[in-house]
Known about the structure:
By secondary structure, the chain is an alpha/beta fold. 28% of the residues lie in helices and 15% in strands. The chain is built from six helices and eight strands; from the N terminus they run βββαααβαβαββαβ. The strands form two sheets. A six-stranded parallel β-sheet has the order 1-4-5-6-7-8. Strand 5 (139-144), helix 5 (147-157) and strand 6 (164-170) form a beta-alpha-beta unit. The longest helix has 17 residues, at 74-90.
Amino acid sequence: MLYEITYNPTMKISLAKGNSKLGKGIYAFNLLPGQQYLSTKDKGQLTNVAGTCGGCCDGCEKFCYAINDARRYHNTCIPSLGKNTVIMRHDLNDMFVQLKNECIKQKAKVLRYHSSGEIESYDYLLHMVLLATELPTVKFYFYTKRFGFVERYLDEHGSFPENLVCNISEWKGNTAGYRLNGMNVFTYDDGTDPNLASLVHCPAVDKNGRKTGVNCDQCKRCFSRNDGHITAVYSH
């Protein structure tokens, strides 16, 4: 089944309510994951809209829970994520105006960017910063492998707003060469590096990759301040 998504200026974004991992008080704004066009062996190409992770997920795509979920639940995921992605690419300003209005309407306390998808441009990151300054009572947080955008922002502006928390997604030395001082780091623990055993691990997933029932709203480590803390995350 091919989900063909065509932009029109009346399109509305989809904001996801908290799930079992995030917690009920946390909303999420998501985009299509993956390097190119999502597909499955039996259904072929799923959509005419390319994912947003091109160039930053080399080697880890087959382990990505966002891609696996989008394939598994394609009937609901692809239309909503595709719509958000299309709006973002055609009218970034409108996307963020809609996102601001939704945060106000839903009385959001916490918003996570991209439990699926990635920051696709530096301008997108600047819009994230602007929204955080316009809604200072909302806590925003995100994970990213777009280290070049983060490095550029830190060089140009010094630090993110206190209510916008940047978590660096580290995997097998992919942060080497970047200047990311002060950013929180979440490092992927696939069991091959014994040095990670002593780190604090995300309590939402156990070493066997199973969900524990602990959610982000209970732990809050992923949206605490940008203070450079390091957290390991088991494969899931």
